Amino acid sequence: MNLPFQTPVNDPVNVSRRGFIAGAGAGALVLGFGVPMGAARAQGAAKVVPGTRVPAFLAIRPDNTILFQSPFAEGGQGVWTAMAQIVGEELDADPAGFTVENAPPGPDYQVVFGQMRITGGSFSVRSSYATMRKLGATARAMLVQAAAQKMSVPAGELTTEPGRVIHKASGKAMTYGELAPAALDMPAPANVALKDPKDFRWIGKRQARLDVRAKSTGKAQFSIDMKVDGMLHAAVQHAPRLGQTVGKIRNEAEVKAMKGVHSVHVLPGAVAVVAERFWHARRAVEATQVDWAEAVGETYRPMPADFSTEAFAQYLANYQGKEEVAETAGDMAAGFAGAASTVSATYHSQFVNHAQLEPPSALARYNADGTLDMWFPNQAPEMFLVEVAKASGLAADKINIHSPLLGGFFGRHFIYPHGTPWPQALELAKRVGRPVKLIWTREEEFLRDPLRPMAAVRFRGALDAKGMPIAIEAISVTEGPTEGIADKRAAKLDDAALEGLTGKKYALPAKRIAQVFVKSPTTLAYWRSVGNSMNDFFYETFLDEMADKGGQDPYALRLKLLEGNARLTNLIKAAVDLSGGWKAGPFTAPDGSKRARGIAMASPFGTETAAIAEVSIADGQIKVHDVWQAVDPGSIVNPAIIEAQVNSAVALGLSEVLIEEAAYKDGLRVARNFDGYPILTPDRMPRVHVRIVESGAPMGGIGEPGLPAVPPAVANAVSRLVGKRLRKMPLAGFA
Amino acid sequence: MIELTINGQKRRVDAESDTPLLWVLRDDLGMMGTKYGCGVAQCGACSVLVDGSVMRSCVTPVEAVAGRKVTTVEAMEKDPVGAKVVEAWVKHQVPQCGYCQSGQVMAATSLLKQNAKPSDADVEAAMVNLCRCGTYNAIKAAVRDVAGLEKKA
Ligand code: FES
Ligand code: FES
């Protein structure tokens, strides 16, 4: 894996700068890596069709290795390897020979549905699959044309094998590396044929990840590891409550006199210490005694001094407000009027932190030529470029955004007001006239990390005489992450608030899904699987509650509700089959423990999932022994990565349902490190069994979909085991 | 000035005696393989070996390791046990984001240095570092593989 700092600014081969686009002069084609993108942006923005200009993505070196500029950030989800597989497949080049980097901002990389660039929403592969295949095929066609010229044979007589163009008749062959300089002068063919999927050599196979060795030897570099000459380090102490400002620093002279301290700074809502070493900065900023002043005027989501999550949960549960309907079907009134029985209950979710293991950092460097370089973790370089331009007052073409490997993200690295360190690093670098790297300690991170929303959902269900659900109503009292981040409601409901309550595939005759908006005092964010991370928990556990009420087995009930839906019937059966056949329990396991199983489904991010969990309770703690999950993303690129992602999503889903809660009391975070905010530990990791089902439906996502079915599967299992419904995450009251 | 032996090399650093080893490695010596995750001995991202035993460098004052042998992830490929661990990590495709993995490799190496044939219980007792990406099953499979415990994970 190549790392931003090891990439020579001028690629010695320079293939990426060669003329490639008909009608454009070579001078304009500074499209590759390590080159200021301003010129390219200015000259190309209007014309560029994202994902079509080969030199913006590919540099084939003389040794036949391939450098690929990825539109997507790698944060553990394996997307760089997937990109190499997809492009390599059509290019006819072994993905193992790829080096992948995160591309700089530029119009070529707006390949998410050809419109934008984010690494999120489990969009990467599914939104760019066709584009990336075509890109690889285009590059291959150009290499073939170059070979035709060099060998003086018709292109139609040439074939390729991995990394080489072959002329079978004469036995001549040239490597891609030899051909690359000439190939890049070839016009891009308008139409290229793509491979028949049955001929795939790499797509769909267990390709080894490209970044694993670097990540096993400490060589992988993250934002926090970046360093430049003359750099100073900074640490901050934030106001305990967002919105507060620095009234007075009581001991500034003492802090300034501490070892290694370069300077002390008042920032909006924080004090910062800049020092020669991070440890000095941290120690000094923690010794800084600040009188915080209350927020005045309009500020972004000021934290009230009396805010407590416990009280907020009750407030949400009881709040009566306008019900804004997101999804409705059938005749609810008739359903309830004609019901043989009804059931109602209120469910709760909690705030959760991202808790990615790499604490946020940012490095800012103003250069003598008036340009600015910034390194920080981000899932959307172009969007941050706009923000950095605004904050710095510089034109976008004077700014270089570097996007190193992400030490986990899970939604953490989008644009969150007051939720990221880069504006502080920028300001400090400007003030001290030297490059500054700012690291947020874990404590500052947990204080300012925007949270997955909290909700209370009021359910009502109606059942007929046979115990079949005939109507369901879910009123979620919550604020969606999108409206929360914007701090403003849109004309339309925030999809991310209710997804997972909406979009359920069960055939219920009547349903009504609505939001009652209550603004959250905390800052909010996207969190792995977003609304689905809690809403499938709500829906699927309440569905079990209806099953109980109607005297139905939860698996049998789901099968009935999926009648006529071949894809989901097949999928839930696949999960059951994987688990060795359905048995809800409680039953006694061979080790003598009493256990039960729960089942749940979800339809997140274009993928369908079904999960089964087996649990017992030991020493007052829930033990999850096994999770079986069947996933149907339609079609796939790398089964090994999918299995790893499902494992990862299971771990995060368990952590959420069993352990995590970002609690506030008196306006303050109760816990600000892993000691008070524990996350899933290795001893609580279950065996995870994955079955991939390729239904051939349009390709869905993979990074997030493995999560949403897990919390309800576990909750349903525990509820069955203890004989009472558990309606709140993290699960409590089971002992 | 404090004299340290890091990966077999003598290094002199100008740090106060109570500076955590983690920050001496990263900021004074520029060795970025050892990671900061929590600073309070909770996550294990900062794990290093001190005289062959795993220690959390974020809470280890540098003076405590003066005169002792410190080994970091940067030396793992040259260490006979470390190299096996790294190969197992590659074989089992352990890392996801990778941020915790320096520490995981160090924890595994420490275990296997002290006990070439650990039991499952030993593995569970030793491999306690946090991984937010949930690579725990892959970690366990890789360690069991090196320990010769792996038949079918
Ligand atoms: S950084 Fe040392 S244990 Fe977390
Ligand atoms: S691999 Fe990401 S934290 Fe472990």
In short:
Chain A has 735 residues and is an alpha+beta fold. Chain A is 28% helix and 21% strand.
Kindly describe this structure:
By secondary structure, chain A is α+β, with helices and mostly antiparallel strands. Chain A has three domains: about 20-215, Aldehyde Oxidoreductase, domain 4 (2-Layer Sandwich), CATH 3.30.365; about 225-295 and about 360-440, Aldehyde oxidase/xanthine dehydrogenase, molybdopterin binding domain (Aldehyde Oxidoreductase, domain 4, 2-Layer Sandwich); about 310-350 and about 450-720, Aldehyde Oxidoreductase, domain 4 (2-Layer Sandwich), CATH 3.30.365.10. Chain A has 20 helices and 27 strands. In chain A, the strands form seven sheets. In chain A, strands 9-10-7-17-14-15-16 form a seven-stranded mixed β-sheet. A five-stranded mixed β-sheet of chain A has the order 12-20-19-18-13. A five-stranded mixed β-sheet of chain A has the order 21-22-23-24-27. Chain A is globular, with a radius of gyration of 28 Å. Mean pLDDT of chain A is about 90; it is low at about 1-45. By secondary structure, chain B is an alpha+beta fold. Chain B folds into two domains: about 1-75, Ubiquitin-like (UB roll); about 75-145, Orthogonal Bundle (DNA polymerase, domain 1), CATH 1.10.150. Chain B is about 35% helix and about 15% strand. Chain B has five helices and five strands, in the order E-E-H-E-E-E-H-H-H-H. A five-stranded mixed β-sheet of chain B has the order 2-1-5-3-4, with helices on both faces. In chain B, strand 1 and strand 2 form a beta hairpin. In chain B, helix 2 crosses helix 3 and helix 2 (about 80-90) packs across helix 5 (about 135-145). Chain B is globular and about 50 Å long. Chain B starts with a strand and ends in a 7-residue tail after the last helix. The interface between A and B is large, with 59 and 55 residues. One FE2/S2 (inorganic) cluster binds near residues 36, 38, 43 and 45 of chain B.
